[in-house]
Design a protein that fits this description.
The chain is built from 11 helices and no strands. It is mainly alpha-helical. It has one domain (4-259).
Length: 276
Amino acid sequence: MPSFLQRLEDGWHVAVRHLPLAVIPLVVALFDTDKIRAIAAFDGTQFGFRLGLPTEIVDVWQFVSVPNDGVHVELGTPGVEPPLAFALVPVWVAVKAGLMAGYFGSIRDVLGLGTYDFAANVRSYVVPFAVYLLAPYVVLVPVAAVVLRGGTSAMVPLVIVLLLVFTVLAYLLWATPYLVVLRDTGLLAAAKRSYALATGDARYVRFSLYFAVLVLVTSAVATGVVVNLGLAGVVIGVVGFAPFGLACNVMAMRFVADVDPQSPSFDPFEVAESPG
Protein backbone atom coordinates (compact mmCIF):
# COMPACT_ATOMS: atom_id res chain seq x y z
CA MET A 1 0.00 0.00 0.00
CA PRO A 2 1.30 3.50 -0.81
CA SER A 3 2.02 5.91 2.01
CA PHE A 4 -0.35 8.72 2.97
CA LEU A 5 1.97 11.36 1.48
CA GLN A 6 2.16 9.43 -1.78
CA ARG A 7 -1.63 9.32 -1.85
CA LEU A 8 -1.78 13.07 -1.27
CA GLU A 9 0.75 13.69 -4.05
CA ASP A 10 -1.22 11.48 -6.40
CA GLY A 11 -4.43 13.29 -5.44
CA TRP A 12 -2.79 16.60 -6.27
CA HIS A 13 -1.63 15.33 -9.69
CA VAL A 14 -5.18 14.25 -10.52
CA ALA A 15 -6.65 17.51 -9.20
CA VAL A 16 -4.33 19.62 -11.36
CA ARG A 17 -5.35 17.66 -14.47
CA HIS A 18 -9.05 18.15 -13.71
CA LEU A 19 -9.15 21.66 -12.24
CA PRO A 20 -12.74 22.38 -13.41
CA LEU A 21 -13.91 20.05 -10.62
CA ALA A 22 -12.24 22.38 -8.10
CA VAL A 23 -15.05 24.84 -8.85
CA ILE A 24 -17.31 22.71 -6.64
CA PRO A 25 -15.37 23.15 -3.35
CA LEU A 26 -14.92 26.82 -4.29
CA VAL A 27 -18.66 27.35 -4.76
CA VAL A 28 -19.59 25.39 -1.63
CA ALA A 29 -17.15 27.51 0.40
CA LEU A 30 -18.68 30.74 -0.94
CA PHE A 31 -22.14 29.51 0.00
CA ASP A 32 -21.09 29.45 3.66
CA THR A 33 -21.73 33.16 4.15
CA ASP A 34 -22.06 32.81 7.94
CA LYS A 35 -18.34 32.07 8.17
CA ILE A 36 -17.44 34.81 5.72
CA ARG A 37 -19.47 37.36 7.71
CA ALA A 38 -17.89 36.21 10.97
CA ILE A 39 -14.41 36.79 9.56
CA ALA A 40 -15.37 40.15 8.06
CA ALA A 41 -16.74 41.31 11.44
CA PHE A 42 -13.79 39.98 13.45
CA ASP A 43 -11.51 42.65 14.88
CA GLY A 44 -8.45 41.06 16.38
CA THR A 45 -5.93 38.29 15.90
CA GLN A 46 -6.79 34.62 15.92
CA PHE A 47 -4.83 31.41 15.63
CA GLY A 48 -6.48 28.05 15.94
CA PHE A 49 -6.63 24.42 14.95
CA ARG A 50 -9.19 22.08 13.51
CA LEU A 51 -9.61 18.34 13.14
CA GLY A 52 -11.59 16.76 10.37
CA LEU A 53 -12.24 13.88 8.02
CA PRO A 54 -13.21 13.87 4.32
CA THR A 55 -16.89 13.26 5.04
CA GLU A 56 -18.15 15.68 2.36
CA ILE A 57 -16.74 18.12 -0.19
CA VAL A 58 -13.45 19.29 1.32
CA ASP A 59 -13.17 23.09 1.12
CA VAL A 60 -11.31 25.86 2.93
CA TRP A 61 -13.60 25.74 5.97
CA GLN A 62 -12.37 22.24 6.75
CA PHE A 63 -9.04 23.90 7.64
CA VAL A 64 -10.06 27.22 9.21
CA SER A 65 -11.07 27.85 12.82
CA VAL A 66 -13.64 30.61 12.34
CA PRO A 67 -14.18 33.10 15.22
CA ASN A 68 -17.58 32.87 16.88
CA ASP A 69 -19.37 34.05 20.00
CA GLY A 70 -20.88 31.60 22.44
CA VAL A 71 -22.79 28.42 21.70
CA HIS A 72 -24.78 28.32 18.50
CA VAL A 73 -26.38 25.70 16.32
CA GLU A 74 -25.72 25.90 12.59
CA LEU A 75 -28.49 24.62 10.37
CA GLY A 76 -26.29 24.63 7.31
CA THR A 77 -28.37 27.13 5.35
CA PRO A 78 -25.93 29.83 4.19
CA GLY A 79 -26.61 33.38 5.29
CA VAL A 80 -30.07 32.67 6.73
CA GLU A 81 -31.16 32.81 10.37
CA PRO A 82 -33.93 30.74 12.00
CA PRO A 83 -36.87 30.40 11.60
CA LEU A 84 -36.49 31.03 7.86
CA ALA A 85 -33.55 28.62 7.83
CA PHE A 86 -35.88 25.75 8.72
CA ALA A 87 -37.97 26.40 5.62
CA LEU A 88 -34.90 26.66 3.38
CA VAL A 89 -33.24 23.45 4.60
CA PRO A 90 -34.83 21.31 1.84
CA VAL A 91 -33.73 23.78 -0.84
CA TRP A 92 -30.16 23.92 0.42
CA VAL A 93 -30.00 20.14 0.83
CA ALA A 94 -31.22 19.64 -2.74
CA VAL A 95 -28.62 22.04 -4.14
CA LYS A 96 -25.74 20.61 -2.14
CA ALA A 97 -26.82 17.02 -2.79
CA GLY A 98 -26.71 17.72 -6.51
CA LEU A 99 -23.24 19.21 -6.22
CA MET A 100 -21.99 16.29 -4.12
CA ALA A 101 -23.52 13.70 -6.43
CA GLY A 102 -21.92 15.20 -9.52
CA TYR A 103 -18.62 15.84 -7.74
CA PHE A 104 -18.11 12.43 -6.13
CA GLY A 105 -19.31 10.56 -9.19
CA SER A 106 -17.00 12.60 -11.39
CA ILE A 107 -13.99 11.95 -9.16
CA ARG A 108 -14.66 8.22 -9.48
CA ASP A 109 -14.89 8.62 -13.25
CA VAL A 110 -11.65 10.58 -13.67
CA LEU A 111 -9.78 7.96 -11.65
CA GLY A 112 -11.22 5.12 -13.71
CA LEU A 113 -11.85 6.64 -17.12
CA GLY A 114 -9.98 9.93 -17.28
CA THR A 115 -13.20 11.76 -18.17
CA TYR A 116 -16.59 12.38 -16.56
CA ASP A 117 -20.20 13.43 -17.09
CA PHE A 118 -21.12 15.68 -14.17
CA ALA A 119 -24.81 15.96 -15.06
CA ALA A 120 -25.21 12.19 -15.43
CA ASN A 121 -23.70 11.67 -12.00
CA VAL A 122 -26.10 14.21 -10.51
CA ARG A 123 -29.04 12.28 -11.92
CA SER A 124 -27.67 8.96 -10.69
CA TYR A 125 -26.78 9.86 -7.10
CA VAL A 126 -28.66 12.98 -6.00
CA VAL A 127 -31.22 11.00 -3.96
CA PRO A 128 -28.81 9.05 -1.72
CA PHE A 129 -26.72 12.18 -1.20
CA ALA A 130 -29.82 14.15 -0.22
CA VAL A 131 -30.64 11.54 2.41
CA TYR A 132 -27.01 11.61 3.57
CA LEU A 133 -27.20 15.37 4.08
CA LEU A 134 -30.66 15.33 5.68
CA ALA A 135 -29.75 12.79 8.36
CA PRO A 136 -27.99 15.26 10.72
CA TYR A 137 -31.02 17.56 10.66
CA VAL A 138 -33.04 14.87 12.42
CA VAL A 139 -30.94 15.72 15.48
CA LEU A 140 -29.98 19.35 14.84
CA VAL A 141 -33.44 20.75 14.13
CA PRO A 142 -34.94 19.73 17.53
CA VAL A 143 -31.81 21.06 19.28
CA ALA A 144 -32.08 24.37 17.44
CA ALA A 145 -35.76 24.60 18.36
CA VAL A 146 -34.88 24.26 22.05
CA VAL A 147 -32.20 26.93 21.73
CA LEU A 148 -34.67 29.31 20.12
CA ARG A 149 -36.97 28.93 23.11
CA GLY A 150 -34.29 30.46 25.31
CA GLY A 151 -32.53 27.42 26.69
CA THR A 152 -29.05 28.26 25.47
CA SER A 153 -27.25 27.95 28.79
CA ALA A 154 -28.82 24.59 29.54
CA MET A 155 -27.83 23.40 26.08
CA VAL A 156 -24.08 23.54 26.67
CA PRO A 157 -23.75 19.96 28.04
CA LEU A 158 -26.05 18.66 25.30
CA VAL A 159 -24.03 20.41 22.60
CA ILE A 160 -20.85 18.83 23.96
CA VAL A 161 -22.46 15.40 23.88
CA LEU A 162 -23.70 15.99 20.34
CA LEU A 163 -20.22 17.04 19.21
CA LEU A 164 -18.81 13.80 20.59
CA VAL A 165 -21.53 11.76 18.93
CA PHE A 166 -21.05 13.46 15.57
CA THR A 167 -17.27 13.01 15.83
CA VAL A 168 -17.67 9.26 16.33
CA LEU A 169 -20.22 9.02 13.52
CA ALA A 170 -17.96 11.04 11.23
CA TYR A 171 -15.19 8.50 11.78
CA LEU A 172 -17.44 5.49 11.32
CA LEU A 173 -19.26 6.76 8.23
CA TRP A 174 -16.96 9.12 6.34
CA ALA A 175 -16.41 6.54 3.58
CA THR A 176 -20.17 6.34 2.89
CA PRO A 177 -20.42 8.90 0.04
CA TYR A 178 -17.39 7.37 -1.66
CA LEU A 179 -18.88 3.89 -1.44
CA VAL A 180 -22.20 5.09 -2.87
CA VAL A 181 -20.51 5.97 -6.16
CA LEU A 182 -17.80 3.30 -6.10
CA ARG A 183 -20.24 0.44 -5.57
CA ASP A 184 -23.14 2.17 -7.30
CA THR A 185 -25.24 1.19 -4.32
CA GLY A 186 -27.76 2.63 -1.89
CA LEU A 187 -26.95 4.77 1.11
CA LEU A 188 -27.68 2.11 3.74
CA ALA A 189 -25.47 -0.50 2.11
CA ALA A 190 -22.67 2.05 1.74
CA ALA A 191 -23.01 3.12 5.39
CA LYS A 192 -22.86 -0.50 6.55
CA ARG A 193 -19.70 -1.09 4.55
CA SER A 194 -18.13 2.11 5.89
CA TYR A 195 -18.89 0.95 9.44
CA ALA A 196 -17.33 -2.44 8.71
CA LEU A 197 -14.16 -0.80 7.39
CA ALA A 198 -13.98 1.58 10.36
CA THR A 199 -14.28 -1.21 12.90
CA GLY A 200 -12.39 -3.99 11.14
CA ASP A 201 -9.64 -2.59 8.92
CA ALA A 202 -6.49 -1.09 10.41
CA ARG A 203 -5.78 0.72 7.14
CA TYR A 204 -8.99 2.73 7.55
CA VAL A 205 -7.93 3.68 11.07
CA ARG A 206 -4.46 4.80 9.92
CA PHE A 207 -5.78 6.82 6.98
CA SER A 208 -8.34 8.55 9.21
CA LEU A 209 -5.66 9.47 11.74
CA TYR A 210 -3.28 10.74 9.06
CA PHE A 211 -6.02 12.82 7.48
CA ALA A 212 -6.96 14.32 10.85
CA VAL A 213 -3.30 15.23 11.41
CA LEU A 214 -3.13 16.77 7.93
CA VAL A 215 -6.12 18.97 8.78
CA LEU A 216 -4.65 19.83 12.19
CA VAL A 217 -1.28 20.92 10.80
CA THR A 218 -2.74 22.77 7.82
CA SER A 219 -5.32 24.54 9.95
CA ALA A 220 -2.65 26.30 11.98
CA VAL A 221 -1.48 28.17 8.89
CA ALA A 222 -4.87 28.42 7.18
CA THR A 223 -6.56 29.99 10.20
CA GLY A 224 -3.82 32.58 10.61
CA VAL A 225 -3.99 33.63 6.98
CA VAL A 226 -7.73 33.47 6.28
CA VAL A 227 -9.01 34.96 9.53
CA ASN A 228 -6.37 37.59 10.19
CA LEU A 229 -6.34 38.98 6.64
CA GLY A 230 -10.10 39.49 6.68
CA LEU A 231 -11.91 39.41 3.35
CA ALA A 232 -8.62 39.29 1.46
CA GLY A 233 -7.78 36.15 3.43
CA VAL A 234 -11.18 34.68 2.59
CA VAL A 235 -10.53 35.17 -1.12
CA ILE A 236 -7.06 33.64 -0.84
CA GLY A 237 -8.37 30.71 1.17
CA VAL A 238 -11.46 29.95 -0.91
CA VAL A 239 -9.52 30.03 -4.19
CA GLY A 240 -6.30 28.48 -2.90
CA PHE A 241 -7.88 25.60 -1.05
CA ALA A 242 -10.30 24.62 -3.82
CA PRO A 243 -7.76 22.44 -5.73
CA PHE A 244 -6.28 21.20 -2.46
CA GLY A 245 -9.74 20.14 -1.29
CA LEU A 246 -10.24 18.33 -4.60
CA ALA A 247 -6.90 16.56 -4.08
CA CYS A 248 -8.04 15.45 -0.63
CA ASN A 249 -11.30 14.04 -1.97
CA VAL A 250 -9.45 12.32 -4.82
CA MET A 251 -7.01 10.58 -2.52
CA ALA A 252 -9.85 9.54 -0.20
CA MET A 253 -11.76 8.08 -3.16
CA ARG A 254 -8.76 6.07 -4.29
CA PHE A 255 -8.05 4.90 -0.75
CA VAL A 256 -11.61 3.63 -0.23
CA ALA A 257 -11.45 1.83 -3.57
CA ASP A 258 -8.15 0.22 -2.54
CA VAL A 259 -9.46 -1.16 0.76
CA ASP A 260 -12.92 -2.20 -0.46
CA PRO A 261 -12.80 -5.42 -2.54
CA GLN A 262 -16.11 -4.69 -4.27
CA SER A 263 -15.02 -1.26 -5.52
CA PRO A 264 -13.47 -0.86 -8.98
CA SER A 265 -9.71 -0.90 -9.44
CA PHE A 266 -8.11 2.27 -10.76
CA ASP A 267 -4.94 2.87 -12.76
CA PRO A 268 -1.65 2.81 -10.82
CA PHE A 269 -0.33 5.94 -9.20
CA GLU A 270 1.59 8.36 -11.36
CA VAL A 271 3.95 9.07 -8.47
CA ALA A 272 6.49 6.51 -7.42
CA GLU A 273 5.36 4.11 -4.74
CA SER A 274 7.56 2.83 -1.97
CA PRO A 275 7.15 -0.49 -0.13
CA GLY A 276 4.70 -0.38 2.79
